[in-house]
Prior knowledge:
With 650 residues, the chain is mainly β. Among the domains are: 56-111 and 122-132 and 143-327, YVTN repeat-like/Quinoprotein amine dehydrogenase (Methylamine Dehydrogenase, Chain H); 523-647, Immunoglobulin-like (Sandwich), CATH 2.60.40. Helix content is 10%, strand content 42%. The radius of gyration is 27 Å and the shape is globular. The two termini are 43 Å apart. The model is unreliable at 1-31 (pLDDT under 50). Sulfanyl-(tricuprio-$l^{4}-sulfanyl)copper binds next to β26 and β30. Its EC number is 1.7.2.4.
Amino acid sequence: xxIYNHLILTIGAALMLVSCGQQNQSSNGALSSSAxxxxxxxxxxxxxxxxxxxxxxSGNLTVYGLPSGRMFKEIPVFSQFPTxxxxxxxxxxxxxxxxxxxxPWDDAHHPDISQTNGELDGRWIFINGNNTPRIARIDLSTFxxxxxxxxxxxxxxxxxxxxxxxxxxxxxxxxxxVPVPQRDMPINEYKGNFKGALTFIxxxxxxxxxxxKFQLLMPGFNYDLSHPGRGKSHGWFFFTTYNTEEAxxxxxxxASQNDKDFIAAINWKKIxxxxxxxxxxxxxxxxAHNVYDEHSHTGTSTMRKEVLTVDPTKVPGAVFFxxxxxxxxxCDVDPTGQYIIGNGxxxxxxxxxxxxxxxxAIEGGNFDGEAYGIPILKFEDVLAGQVKSGGLGPLHTExxxxxNAYTTFFISSEVVKWQLGTWEVIDRKPTYYSVGHLMxxxxxxxxxxxxxxxxxxxxxxxxxxxxxxxxxxxxQLYDISGDKMELIYDFPTHGEPHYAAGCPAELLAPKSxxxxxxxxxxxxxxxxxxxxxxxxxxxxxxxxxxxxxRSHFTPDNIEGIKVGDKxxxxxxxxxxxxxxxxxxxxxxQNSSELLVMPGQTKTSVWEPKDVGVWPFYxxxxxxxLHQEMQGYVRVSPANSNVExxxxxxx
Length: 650
Ligand code: K7E
Ligand code: CUA
């Protein structure tokens, strides 16, 4: 049925394109009439690119193929996910621990793939949780969340999670400024008292482990988006700000007073040096660091108690403000590292700053005053150029690696292609409707793959069959290999994608893990041999060491469980074949099922409330005898003398 629908859509798209393709024949070349051919990935064939779309308020990350727009996986990150048991199984609950306790949801915006020498290396992908500030690292061989670190002194972790060109740091900036450290104070004393923390989290080059290196405590503005310098500007990081007015109420009016806000330019290498030489101030903090171990298949959460803060005025030459009109949102750096693009949401023009000019202006020491001790460069001194009348409501920019930039315009609903250096608009195409971010695979690196751009739209309306008041957001795929962009496909997304990251399939597909090796399973409750199954009572806790293989559980009959017991089902999947998970669910379970991958162990807790004989079963259709993959647990009264026993095939 899905293939059938897909065919209808692609044939439909082909018919449309045949008619308008004929008018455009001259500019688009002979193949342009066949949009269907461009997006059609025949049954059995695979896509050319991976695309990782943030889920926004789903808290997760979704994986798509390009050009087909087929969704391959939802990777649970910040949100509980009953499909796999993430955030429900005992092993994954610690991943969602924070200083505020168990937080099973977040708002995930900006994925970024790890880089080496400014090029995608496909080892990890990072993504931010906005609401309860966190950064996650996802392993791109297992496509599972491997680590989550909470970010203290931050609030609305939005100018995140962008990485430096050798993945030295994943950077997390605060949207809301807050009292640092948090304390009870009147809200209207915000101005001059609240701080905006920009957090540099180091990434261990071998294992990817994250640790907060330092937090730069900036003036109380809103730090909206950021991007790393690269190439010549490697060592710098750029953040857009808004609300430089430091308003604490009715921001839609009060934060739109200043003609220009700033892009903050941070020389992180300088600050790193300062910190390595003993600079900075350690302050008490309380934040969770959660790490998932692939061999024990278990997450652990550790509370960290201290963070190193840096006052930017103590590191001369490290922090500058670049005036940028008006309430800029996106902050994007071109593949050469020369141009820093600030998109003023309330401005008609795009502002492009020059890195070289910035350095010259800094060296000249010719400033336009300061803000809280941080020098403000002169607008004209750093301006590279302006893109005039691009559209209305510019948000985000990506690059094709061929000297062109592509900017989304929310209000005028379009993607506009323009040329770096001449600032000339080359092409514009409508989006349906109200586009936010866009993504070119590798578009945030020194080496973009400028074949496709994906526009992620905020409003769907009539693009799909209606599904009641709530519609999934729409994405649109444009072929950008020619001079003119060509809209070739629409596909629905999940949650609210903000940013996305993409890469060639060959970077990830060959190393994608197929199974977990049973002989490498270090889970403390794993059953690694067929006869290792057992049931062990420890007071009112009962541990069931259970294994699965097509098509039975061992054991499948358990007696001697009593009301008031806490029963831990530790399920080890003995399969060693690709794509043969087994599931586990038991009647009355207060959590979700588990989906256990080959060679993996996962644990579900069950606290039976009533006497009876309760069934459990496999939730994943694993073989012709999947429906036979079931068992029973006998639950007796709390004071009963029924002996604990377990069996299979007796
Ligand atoms: Cu523009 Cu969170 Cu990057 Cu959404 S943000 S669109
Ligand atoms: Cu195992 Cu179904």
